Sequence to fold (124 residues):
Amino acid sequence: MGKKEIYMEKAVFIIKCMLGAYILTAGLLLLLAFLLYRFGLSEKVVSVCIIAIYIIVTFFAGILAGKREGKRKFLWGLVMGVLYFGILAMVSLVVNKGVEDVAGNMMTVFFLCAGSGMLGGMIS
Fold:
């Protein structure tokens, strides 16, 4: 196999991994919405749960990437966490039409996503 095929294979894997991560995120957010509806959770609890969902999903994406690659597992987990955050930030900026509402927690969420993805890669 040539370098081009190897890079294409890795790119396809990363896209599949990100798609799986966002499907898992959607499922967990739907579960959270049901719990919010059913039990009337407070805003603080919902905020903590959303951050926990980001951590859980990037952790599992890091595990998948680390298992697949075998070498430099922590780096592949970090890549998954950073890509997850990048897509999340772009969607948030488009939906909110600016940085004002999003900027407060952006760095915290970045470090949580990157760190949990890297941790997942290290554990795999």
Notes: The radius of gyration is 16 Å.
